[in-house]
Design a protein that fits this description.
One of its GO terms (molecular function) is oxidoreductase activity, acting on the aldehyde or oxo group of donors, NAD or NADP as acceptor. With 510 residues, the chain is α/β, with parallel strands linked by helices. Helix content is 37%, strand content 22%. The protein starts with 10 loop residues before the first strand and ends with a helix. Bound molecules: nicotinamide-adenine-dinucleotide.
Length: 510
Amino acid sequence: MAEHPRFESKMMIDGALVDGQAGTFSNVNPATEEVLGEVADASAADMHRAIDAARRAFDDTDWSVDHKFRQRCLVQLQQALEGEQEKLREELIAEAGCPRAITYGPQLDAPLSDALRFPGQLIDDYPWETSLGDAFVSVTGANTTRMVWREAVGVVGAIVPWNFPFEVTIHKIGQALATGNTVVLKPAPDTPFNATRLGRLIAENTDIPAGVVNVVTASDPLIGEELTLSPKVDMISFTGSTAVGKRIMEKGAATMKRLFLELGGKSATIVLEDADLGLGAMMGIAPCVHAGQGCANPTRLLLPRSRYAEGVAILQGIYEGVAPGDPQDPATLCGPVISAKQRSRIRGYIDKGIAEGAKLLVGGAEPPDGLDRGFFVKPTLFVDVDNSMTIAQEEIFGPVLAVIPYDDENHAVRIANDSVYGLAGNVMSGSLEHGLAVAKRLRAGFLGINGAAGYGADTPFGGYKASGVGRQNGTAGFDQYTEIKSVAFPAVSEARRRRAEAGPPNQAAG
Ligand code: NAD
C-alpha cells in the first residue's frame, strides 16, 4: 500500500513556513477531481517580502562566494529529498496526475539522482577565475594583467509549469544555488505541493540560510509577474508556454532582466526510408505518455509515402491498444490531463483537426468509456495531416499524434523545420550515420536517433526559435546563472602576480 503523503500547505518566505495573505486555494487531483488539500495563496505583498528576503540574502551574506558551504547545503538538500522520495512520488501522482511508471524516470527518480549532484560537483571544477595573462596596453603604455571572474547573477525568479513540476524545479534550484544565486520559486497553481514540500525540507533539514530560497504559491499567475517587474530581481528562469515566455521577455525589458526561457514545442519524428518501420511507428506512442504533457514530445510523425500505409496500420494498432487510466496503476501510460480547462482546449484541437480535413483514425473528442471522473482524453491518432493544419502547427499538450506523409528526405526535413518551434526531434534510420546526418539538418535543440533520449543534468536542453532562449543543464546551463567580470591590473612581479591570480580573499576562501 502506497504511503499517503502529508501535504505541506504553507509557503516558505525568509526561512519561515507562512500562510498567504490572499487565503488559500485548492489543489485538485486531476484523476479524481477530488480536492487534495488547501495551499497558501500569496498576495503581491507576500511576493515582495520573498523578493526582499532573496535580495538581502544575496547582498548581505557570503552565500554567493562561499562555494564549499553551498556544496554542503546541496548535499543536505539531496539527503532530505531522498528521505521523502516515496512521499514525493505519491504527491506527484496525485497532484500532477502523472502515471506511476513515469515517476521512476523523468518525473522524479531521474532528476533526483543528478539535478543537485551534477551542479554541486561542478562547483569544484568550474572556471570561477581564468587568467588571460599580460598584454601591452598602448593607452597606458604599460603591461596589464587580465583576469575573468564568474559570479552569481543575483536574485533569480524561478517560474515553473505543472507537467514535470519537480523535475523543472530541482534543475533550476540546483543550478541557481550552485552558482551562488538566491531564488524565489513560483510553482504552477495546479501543482504546488511538491514545491511547498521542498520549502519545508529546506527550512527544516538544511543550513541554507533564510532568504536564499523562497517558495511562493499563488492562484493568480500575475503574482508571478511581480518577479518579472521587480528591479530587485536580476534574472527570470522560466519554463512554460511560449505565450507567457514572450510576455516575460516584454515585461522584463524595463529592468533588463537576464532571461532563461524554456518554452513549448511541436517536435517531429522522421522515420526514414531505411528505418525499422515497427520501431519508427513505436515512437508514435510518445504523445500518450503522461497524456502528451511533455514539452519535447514528438507530436508529429513523418512517414515516407512509399511505406505510409504500412506505417499507419502499425500506428492504428498501437493507438487502439492504449487506454487512458488511473495514474496509480503501474501499467498506466496515459493518465489524465491537468485540468478541465486543458481537457476542453485539447478537445477543441481535435475538433479543429477534423474540420480542417485531417483523418481521425483512433480516439476523438468525446469522453473515454468508463471514466466518469477525472480529466481524461482519448489517445487520438490523426493521419493524412498536412503540415499547415493547426494540429500540426500548434502545441496541443495532449495525447494527440499527427501523422504526415513525405515524398523524399529533403521534403521530410522541410516539414520538420516548418514550425515556429524548435525544441526537439527524432530521426529513425537503419544507419546511425544517416540518422546523424539528418539530425544535423534539423533546427531543434535536442535530437534523438532511433529513440534514444539523453536528458540529464549534464546535458544542455533547450530550444531554437520560439521554443526558448538559453539552455537548462550542463555547463551551458551553469554559465547562464553567472555574470562575467573582466578585471585588469598593472602587471606586477611574478610573485605578486601569483598572489593576485589566486583571487580576492573572499573567493579564495570558497
Ligand atoms: P504557463 O506558461 O501557462 O505557466 C507556467 C508558469 O508561469 C506557471 O507557474 C504560471 O502560473 C506562470 N505564469 C503565468 N503567467 C505568468 C506571467 N504573466 N508572469 C509570470 N508567470 C506567469 O504554462 P503551463 O500551462 O503551466 O505549462 C505548459 C507549458 O510549459 C507548455 O507550453 C510546455 O511546452 C511548456 N514546458 C516547456 C518545457 C521546456 O523545457 N521547454 C518543459 C515543461 C513545460
